[in-house]
Here is the input.
Amino acid sequence: MSYYIKSFRNWFGVFGILLMAGCQPRITETTLGSGWASTSINAVSFRTNSIVSDGNWQFAAYYDSTGQVVLAKRTKSTGDWTIYPTNFAGNVTDAHNTISIMLDGDGYLHMAWDHHGHPLHYARSREPYGVELDTLTMTGMGESNVTYPEFYKLPDGDLLFFFRDGMSGRGNLVINKYNLDDKKWTRLQDILIDGEEQRNAYWQACVDVLGTVHLSWVWRETWDVETNHDMAYARSTDGGKTWQRSDGTLYQLPINASTAEYALRIPQKSELINQTSMTADEDGRPFIATYFRKDSLSFPQYQLIYHDGKQWQTEQVSDRKTGFSLSGGGTKRIPISRPKVLVDKKKVLVLFRDEERGSKASAYEAGRANLKQWSVPDLTLDDLGAWEPTYDTELWKRESILHLFVQKVGQGDGEQLEEMPAEEVRVVELKL
Here is the structure.
């Protein structure tokens, strides 16, 4: 078994997962620059995406120590990053104000940044694979109170843009669509999920290899995270125009709490986290990773909620030994990260960070045939603070290669700062 390992500190953790996978991998780690670290803004789970690529080029984005947006770019052939500071900036003291990027089918880079109930901040590159970006509008309608901007790429190269219009406990999910032919955005869904002025949906989404858009979400009744409850599901086979349940029956839009399909009922005050991740396998069957506490005597555990083609199933992934309580508003300081789930034909990976394991980047791994038996290799050996996993979703979808965005970050509870100097932004690369 031959390896190319640039960073020795990752060797032991990665070796376990590679050995179990029985493959001939290349492993390396690259450093992009120094990023803001007194909040977790560069390393929260709802960055879609922090890194993105097509067949030839890869881009990454982060805030530097002063709050300026930095773009990094490299070709697939060289592996060397070139760094491009921009004229854009964000309020890095609030970890909600993340940067999200995506390449469209023509190679134009799209970016949204600095949102927590703010007017839309959106820019697009002047030319394919360019780093000179112009600030633009999208539809110009209903984009004055934007939170959680996320880009998703469809198989034809068009883009979807998801965002919340409204506030925690009182908000709706909106979707815009970008058309390659005329390079314009249109409104696809004014209100896809309706909180009915009583609650809001915290979602996670993906586009699978078949082009189906999958969406799952928890409801929150108020600003307080302890009112998170349930896991709902919807999918679209026509690029987000119409939506259906897992059995193919059509939703009447907008979807609300009484009409939603529930993959799992989870009570309030269960330490259920919001904004985790989902994916789908080669047959379009959805997998959702999250964590919650099953009862008053148990500890919060990572859980995998998935559809086996006939019905919804749930498997406990972790065996944690310490408890914590989720309550209050704002960004929380939590001893574990939100998980990211990845699936290929042979295995399921759940990426995470846990203080029980020294706050490293780690992964639960199980074979597709046995989701009751999980191994737990570490992907780094260093303490990453409040880091949460994000990765190049398009590269994984194309080639089952994992490029993980890694930076040690701090985070005080409820939008407080944790005094920490700028920390290296890295990409840990792993081919399974």
Q: What stands out?
A: DSSP finds two helices and 27 strands in the chain. The longest strand covers residues 170-179. Residues 346 and 368 are 5 Å apart (CA to CA). Helices lie at 11-21, 393-399.
